[in-house]
Predict the 3D structure of the following.
Amino acid sequence: MFDDFFIRALVAGIGIAFVAGPLGCFVVWRRLSYFGDTLAHSALLGVTIAYSLEFNIAVSIFLISSAIALILIQLQKKTNLPSDALLGLLAHSSLAVGLVVIGFLTFIRFDIMGLLFGDILAVNKKDLVTIWVGGALILLVLRLIWKPLFASTVNYELAQAEGLNPDRAKAIFTILLAAIIAISIKLVGVLLITGMLIIPTAMARNLSDNPQKMVIFAIIGGLLSVFIGLFSSLEFNTPSGPSIIATALVLFIFSLLKVKQTIQLKN
Amino acid sequence: MSIENNILVKLNNVGFQQNQKWLVKGVSLQVEKGKIVTLIGPNGSGKSTTAKIALGLFKNIEGQVEKFTNNIGYVPQKISIDWTLPLRVRDFMLLTDNLTEDVIDEALSLTGVINLKDKSLGNLSGGEFQRVLLARAISKKPELLVLDEPVQGVDFTGEIALYELIKEISEKLNCGILLISHDLHTVMSATDHVVCLNGHVCCSGSPKEVAKNSQYKALFGEQAAQTLSIYEHKHDHVHTSDGDIKKN
């Protein structure tokens, strides 16, 4: 059954959607979408390192993204630059360095478009294991840190005062973010992973009045985006990442109708 | 040792500085089980800072904080809920602890906002929000309650009722309360011990002692001291909502 490339892509996408929903909610709630972008851009460097050292791609991306997150925290402490400037600096320089390194690795043929925008043909059986096992681990850890992470998202001092450990939860969450980028890069691509995290979540916000509902709708939105996106990618021969994200955008636009209705009802 | 003495938290000569400026310095106080300690002082006198030191929210402090409980309920002075996070009152009640429906209902009923349980937090008025904050803090039956201006935005009758409730809670749960208020006369009847802050401890003692203290008078003016003494005779009458005063 997994011999068909399309089935593999679909199974991979379903796995990613389940993880991206809850993580994406926290990315939106904690205003981390640009941070996610920075981690994703640095993933390209991880890919090149993996190829040149013949190392596991997902592990390599995970390590590089985590390193970039640590560098960011250090830069925030040691410089007077605002966070968005530092994020921009890291995002673009790591993307640039990644592309330069690819230029040097002439002995390996890279599908740059595939790396940047995802490639439906690239997902192999090993990737499926990485996505589902890795995804299950990410969700399990998120479940364990949910309380302190959520409480500190609402109010940091309140969470800390009442004995939760917000700093630890935040650090673990950063690692989870690096992990989902590592497992979803093949299907969605470096430039669009953050879209997978935040667009279904933005749609879910328009449909929900409580956090649990928002997480569930974000997962459903992600699943629909993967299904429709991948089928149209197959049908129209478009790259998989943009097809999935474009579908998510259409769903978001539909969700705006619901917002309009609620606002009208209120008036 | 301290458990026997009923001490929940003890501040020993603590201070905190930010950007080379001392926000508070040389503050010592302790909160015991079943007792209410009130911090008063003008704006910027370090009341909230002192409460945060007691809660362990700052890392680089001077002096020592000894805490003998981890079961703490906190009502911060300011809290803003981002619209990107959809949150109902019932979700907010579960923020730091897993509570049963009954416990949530009981707490919300005590502060008079049970009817708001399914409302979105963003749609509450200031006074309603304060009542929810207070309900959340007491719902987990804490040993130590830290209340930073818990009745801001609540109307006058509600304010008195809530202070009476706070007093009731401290007796019922036998918990210690560290209360911050700039509104002197409504707080006084509930308080066992008053600490008057102005960057340092300006004076402290029972409400009566503090009111007589010359430094307190210098800080708040003769008027405030008057208000205080008037308040102490309050129990022979009640204020009705139309402004009348009824003798008991």
